[in-house]
Specification:
2 copies of one chain form a homodimer. Chain A contains 5 helices and 2 strands. Chain A has 179 residues and is mainly alpha-helical. In chain A, a hairpin with a 3-residue loop joins strand 1 and strand 2.
């Protein structure tokens, strides 16, 4: 393992010090975690439904905030898959696809904007759940399982936001060293 | 004006180049804008109420998402006042209160965390408004003015988030140059 790291470092001496290799690996781990959180959040929100009065069905699509949540999950997921592919390539080969300042700026702005997206989706979901749930309960329609699932999805989205926000701190610190 | 800038630059040659003075002034402008947006958002959300059936009154406090919105406005406002005081001091005197890496790290993490707070408050407010408004309308209680005011406050909070997010880009770029 140590030999391997040394070889990689030696091969890219001009552009990548050892600490950069470490932070790339941490970034890749964070992105894998985000991938898992967003995947489960997606599955949970899509499966969120409950039958009312034995016939009509309440689906996640009926709550606009959950639709927005789904769209932020999809956007975050797509960005994350792209970044994971780039990260895997850069960890394996020791080189970056986007060389120079462009790659670091892409990481910096990408993580920043996507972390804002994920947080807004999660907050909108929680905001809608909290008050709608109280309102439905006051109307003798508890729907606990429906809102429980939606909140589980919003929580996973929040975890996905947290890992992306941590990645964003790393990419902010990496930015001007190379620019 | 030019003389003044030169004098300031000369006085702090060791730590602050001219571009740093410019970005400090831009940062101060962004913080003044955030201050104005958050102040109006605070006033609007506090004044959000509507009488139901001529007797009972619906207040912003009855919607939990709006309470959360208010708390993020207050947190953002307090942070912003502190940063404005520090910015004014640094623009006037040409020196920073927190010298070295500490000041830049405080700006970086502060702007990052507070921008996340403001966005989550705004998103929670919009998420709750959108679906509650639809739900109330379906129950023949339009409450257009109530939700209109709440959305106005959430929009102003969103503008406050945007100016803080732009400030956060500036403080991210300023970070490792001095660290």
């Amino acid at each position: 393992m140590e030999n391997n790291t040394n070889t990689t470092t030696a091969a890219t001496t001009t552009s990548a010090p050892s600490s950069s290799t470490v932070s790339r690996t941490v970034l890749l781990l964070l992105r894998v975690l985000t991938f898992v959180f967003l995947l489960i959040a997606f599955i949970v929100i899509v499966l969120t439904k409950e039958t009312l009065d034995g016939e009509s069905e309440l689906k996640f699509k009926d709550i606009h905030a959950y639709r927005y949540m789904l769209s932020t999950i999809v956007i975050g997921f797509a960005y994350n898959c792209l970044q994971m592919a780039l990260s895997i390539f850069s960890v394996v080969s020791g080189n970056r696809v986007l060389n120079g300042g462009a790659g670091y700026k892409f990481d910096f702005y990408g993580d920043k904007i996507i972390s804002y997206f994920l947080l807004s989706g999660s907050a909108a979901g929680f905001g809608a759940s909290e008050d709608l749930h109280r309102f439905f309960k006051a109307n003798d329609l508890p729907l606990n399982s429906f809102f429980g699932k939606a909140n589980a999805s919003a929580s996973l989205l929040l975890f996905g936001f947290l890992t992306t926000a941590i990645a964003s701190v790393f990419t902010s610190f990496a930015l001007p060293k190379k620019a």
